[in-house]
Amino acid sequence: MAQVVIIGAGLTGLSTAYYLEHNKFFDYTLVEKNARPGGLLRSETVNGFTFDYTGHFLHCNHQLFNNFLRDVVGFEHLMSIARSSSIFSHNTYTRYPFQMNLFGLPTNVIAECIEGYVQRSTHTRNPQNFYAWVLKYFGRGFGKHFFFPFNRKLADYDVRRMHPSWTGRFVPSTNLEAIIKGALSHQQPTQVGYNSNFYYPRAGGIEIVIKHLCATLSGPIATLRSIAKIDPLTKTIFYTDGTQERYSTLISTMPLNQLLALLPPSSRMPLNQYASRLACNAIVNINLGLTTPLPLNWHWTYFPEPTYPWHRLGYWHNICSQMAPEGRSSLYAEFSYQPKHMPPQLVAKKTHHAIAQILEFLGLSEQHIMVKNILILDHAYVIYTAWREQNIDKILDSLRAMDIYSIGRYGAWKYSSMQEAVIEGYQTAQVVCKKEKSQWKRCNDFMRASAF
Ligand SMILES: Cc1cc2nc3c(=O)[nH]c(=O)nc-3n(C[C@H](O)[C@H](O)[C@H](O)COP(=O)(O)OP(=O)(O)OC[C@H]3O[C@@H](n4cnc5c(N)ncnc54)[C@H](O)[C@@H]3O)c2cc1C
Known about the structure:
Bound molecules: flavin-adenine dinucleotide
CATH architecture of the largest domain: 3-Layer(bba) Sandwich
Largest sheet: 7 strands, mixed
CATH class of the largest domain: Alpha Beta
Helix content: 25-40%
Radius of gyration: 24 Å
Strand content: 15-25%
């Protein structure tokens, strides 16, 4: 029996292991359902093209994460990049963020955005859904031309049923001066938003972070492990191959809805019944390796209009030239869907249609495609609903009371970044180490007392 079992070798699970070892705690097992570690931070290389599971860029504004990148990856393996991103709507490219860069859009669109901003309903207290939140902070015009259609597409969810608590640093604020300046001329690229600068590996895609991290760990990772059920009373994990494993503390980074479904119905709270109340979307990530260079310089572009099935189109070779062979280019597109509303055949049909539209949009044909690599992210964006707001802390607290720490983007059911994954790994390791070491000491004291 290992004292600590960690489920999931994504960035959160691996960071937890890293900080456990930092605390000289080695009595843990790491189990992973896939053939290799990394979770969302895996990269696929096909015929000289490297693709990530959509754009994954390292945003760092915390000392702990800075130290992690320095000590684990090494800044010599990373490039610092100033974001170059845009929005395509009304047949025009405008700079990101939309709420500061209206220049180039039709006059009536600019007028609607400014008028809506001036007349916005600032008196609304605590807007309870994303729709009302946008009306309060940006007004009707910005909502109509960007926030409503874009977020509808990104989440594949009704914006009136989404709680605004996730917005925080993800949606830069604006003011009348910035709106008017940005409507009258092309602004110089500005350092607006949490992702205005980022790090990215010089070669090998984002999985390089995982490779460096795994190289620091002393213990093996048990891959291709599939869990049938978990019994929190006897603290036992039952695997689908018939084996079982006891634990003292369980750290889970698997999606919370799937974890809850593995618990017995008799738990103190009817936790397994809550699994279906947690909303999340899935993403199809279309990656294309192209025979020809592309004239666009953006790292990525957002597409709010429903005419385009994807919400973002990005260019791997512009982010890092090593992602495509010399003289070639590569791109990624993403579209979201709700798996329970879209069967696999429909997803395949939409993907096929989207590829045709991407080629048409870029003035290319099927002959330009050297590599087609379609990746599915079955958990992508957690949807913040009113139900989640009321229940998530209670669920996580109940699990902790059973010595189960459910952490990470999907373990804690939240909208979080790689930086947060590492910080959460650190914090969980601190808590668990302290708990396990004090339990071990109590047990030792007891043994010693009984011996004499
Ligand atoms: C579209 C998209 C774009 C993003 N872009 C960025 C970005 O630019 N910058 C940024 O900082 N962050 C970004 N993120 C967030 C980032 O991906 C996450 O914060 C981070 O990868 C979360 O790591 P994790 O370990 O919590 O989850 P995961 O990477 O999902 O890892 C969980 C692991 O658990 C394993 N697992 C699941 N079930 C089981 C089971 N039953 N048994 C064993 N193992 C299991 C999985 O296989 C996986 O390896 C993005 C996320 C998405 C979806």
